[in-house]
Amino acid sequence: MFRRFLMLGSINALLSVALGAFGAHGLKGVISDEMLTVYQTGVQYHMIHALGLIAIALVADRLGNHRLVNAAGWLILIGIILFSFSLYALSITGVKILGAITPFGGVSFLAGWACVFLAAFKSKRS
After folding, report:
1. How many structural domains does the chain have?
2. Minimal CA–CA distance to 93: which of 44, 40, 39?
3. Out of 35, 105, 120, 126, which could bridge 82 as a Cys pair, Cβ 3.0 to 4.6 Å?
């Protein structure tokens, strides 16, 4: 579990930097300032939760193979896909219905962090 979420966190951090650079340099002047802000929100949450995946890897290493930590990692990854990538698609295409997907990613983020909390709460380690 440690290795899996460390790799997923690292690749998502890389993607976040690459997509952020693309947005800053490739989309400026191509999409509206409002849509560029939407895109940047996707990048911000992408990076924060990529770092969260790395933190979850460290928690997994500390707590062991705990099913709640495993669930947290997958929920955070799903959140990145639904939240950030829906914002990327919305901002680039202008298809407003894509914004309806974003809250599902937010709920996935919340559930993932709740799983981390519960794993820590239930842990026997001090």
Report:
1. 1
2. 39
3. 105
